Every structure is written in C-alpha cells, then in structure tokens.
Amino acid sequence: MRALILAAIGVATLAVPTMASADVIENADLTFASGATFDGTITFSNDFSVVDAVNGTLTGYQAGIAGYVGSGSDAISTVFDLGFNSSPGPYLYYLLDNADPSSSTHLIQFVYASDGTGVTLLPGSAGFYSGNNVDLQDAMVSGTVTSSVPEPGTVGLLALGLLALGAARRRAA
What pTM does this model have? Predict the structure, then answer.
C-alpha cells in the first residue's frame, strides 16, 4: 500500500509542474561596442516566444557623436513589442527606460532566437540609443542570458528524489 501511495505522489509531483505555465526569469548581461553594459533580469513566457518584463540597469554610456562612452546609468524597466514577433523568431523587442516609447531616453534593441527551451542572443543585430534620436549604431557585441529560477520540472524531480530518499530511510529503519 505504501509503495502505491509513493508512486501516486511521484506521478503527481511530475505532472503538476509540467501543467504550469509559469514565466521564466533569466539573468541578462549585455555588452555593447562602446563598452556600455546592461545587467538585469528579463522575464520570458514559458516557451521563450514573448518578453513579458525587464528589470535592470544600462551603464557606461554618454550621448555623443562618437558613440556612447561615459559613466551614466539608467533603469530599464519597460518592454515594448513592435507587434510582429512570431514563432520561430528571431524575436525583436525594445527594452525602455519608461512606459512611453516616444519619450524614452534609453532604448535597448533586444534580438534573440529560441527553440522553445532557451534563448540565443543575436549580437550585432541589436544595440541601444541615448537621447532623442533613434540611433542604434552601438551594437551589442556580446551577452549572456542564463537561468535564474529553477524550471518547474527541475523542482519536481528534486521533490521526487527527496520522497524516494525518505522512503528508503524509513524502510531501512
């Protein structure tokens, strides 16, 4: 009877997380040709086809004719979707410093591809601007997007493993 109960708990533990459609929060570190950087988190839909939220800081810029170099920083907290993203991508979003794109001072053009299981950045095809004119000459040269929150399936496997260890310990006692 105990074995049947443990098996039912194991199946439920694996089934429930896969039914959830929680967003995926990823850490993002982007570097632009001028040396400016963006560090923060980006929240994606569970299949990585939509950017739902952003929270981070753009640093090391200064508006100027020769590019963006300096010590300025600005909070980036708004996602703007141009409305033409579709699977399989690539996907293009603007990450802004305020909710009104027409009055944003800083905008990061964020371009990525996804196979539904993660994000591949597309350096060179994205950049940011500083000031009133859209000027994306400062292209992203490198970046990483890495998982910051365990996937529901990973949590389910951990729970199942802990249940199995507990059952084995009770059996041995």
Answer: 0.67
